[in-house]
Amino acid sequence: MKKLPAKLLCLSHLRWDFVYQRPQHLLTRFSEMFKTYFLEEPIQDATDGAYLHLSNRLPNLWVVVPHIPKGLSKLEEKLMMKQLMDKFMEKEDSEDFLFWYYTPMALSFTEQLSPALTVYDCMDELSLFKNAPAELKDLEKRLIAKSDVVFTGGQSLYEAKKQQHANMFPFPSSIDKSHFVKARTNKVQPADQAQVEGIKLGFYGVIDERFDINLIKAVADARPEWNFMLIGPVLKINKAHLPKNKNIHYLGQKSYEQLPAYLSGWDVALIPFMLNDSTKFISPTKTPEYLSAGKPVVSTAIRDVVNPYAKNKLVHIGYTAEDFIDAIELELNNKNKKEWLAKVDAFLLKNSWDNTCESMLTCIKNSIKDKHKISIAS
């Protein structure tokens, strides 16, 4: 095999219509060169046998959703998924496929298949997330061993895993600058945000076990005149535990297209993540997105935010509520952001999902060459 396969099958733990992030950014671009299938985790609602539902989202991209019966044991579910995948691949030439894994769990029902190339894009340390399956670590070891090339979603994750594979590369979160730069000139606020008057501090993303609700409450308590605009779905935490301050506004999930309009109305953007196992290796995509929008950023000490963003004096790092208040007040009183913004733009100049895709593709092509050399030698 000297050339790229014609098709790509992505196996994901995230749903295509969930928060728009790394998988969507990459696969929309890869779909311009591969016939792309995005396989989601199964939905347990089938009443008349298991099946795959395909929906066309882009000219060359299909979302594939397995539907299986309720009440199956883990083993029964694995066997049913294996049968569905075998049936799907019966109509396809597996040797013309690149398999792109986001979840090692998918290996349990695809290990029997033989794609031309296997890529593991390890965007997070999933084994450290809340409710992670016990078998995930073992499956990841097997997936890494099976992979031809491994990518990581950040530098710290790369440092933690680089000894596990000889062909591993870090690809931190990137940006679609032309999308988020719209926030710098947008004048019309979305209706639900426009009705909130005064200073606005914002966050968008998933509000889950990584989100420091106590930190937000402490800052909101100390500064009742500040408004907190929290955008995103609430998952894996009890909504009843969320702070109910009048100055904290939960606006729900918004589409990727809507985000620049919301960002445009914020005075400061926040990354209030807890420092725990689930955030140990994350590389928040929102960091460069906030900066592209021209918004000052205050974050907790997430390693992939500290280095490179705080190290280059592009964002503020806070360890306590008092630190966050001091950094926010500093930015609210800063009337001249031109020099900082010029530094931001210079730093982000070559940072784009297009460039990330191009670099990943180079790694993939080199892996194909190496695999071809090995097959000739053997």
Task: Itemize the secondary structure elements and their pairings.
Layout (H helix, E strand, L loop, with lengths): L6 E5 L10 H9 L4 E5 L3 E2 L6 E8 L2 E8 L5 H17 L6 E5 L15 E6 L13 H11 L2 E4 L2 H7 L6 E3 L6 H4 L10 H4 L5 E5 L8 H10 L4 E5 L16 E5 L6 H5 L4 E4 L14 H7 L4 E3 L3 H8 L5 E2 L3 H12 L5 H10 L5 H25 L1
Helix pairs in contact: 1-13, 7-11
CATH topology of the largest domain: Rossmann fold
The largest β sheet comes out as: 9 strands, mixed
Chain oligomer state: single chain
The CATH class name of the largest domain reads Alpha Beta
Helix % is: 25-40%
**Total strands:** 15
CATH architecture of the largest domain: 3-Layer(aba) Sandwich
How far is the first residue's CA from the last residue's CA? 14 Å
Indicate the radius of gyration in whole angstroms: 22 Å
Tell me the fraction of residues in β-strands, as a range: 15-25%
Please tally the helical runs, counting DSSP H or I stretches of 4 or more residues: 13
Q: Which spans of ≥5 residues are poorly predicted at pLDDT below 50? A: none
Give a structural overview:
The two termini are 14 Å apart. Helix 1 packs across helix 13 and helix 7 crosses helix 11. Strands 1, 2, 3, 4, 5, 6, 7, 8 and 9 form a nine-stranded mixed sheet that branches. Strands 12-11-10-13-14-15 form a six-stranded parallel sheet, with helices on both faces. With 378 residues, the chain is α/β, with parallel strands linked by helices. 34% of the residues lie in helices and 19% in strands. The model has no long low-confidence stretch (mean pLDDT 95). It folds into two domains: 193 residues, Glycogen Phosphorylase B (Rossmann fold), CATH 3.40.50.2000; 171 residues, Glycogen Phosphorylase B (Rossmann fold).
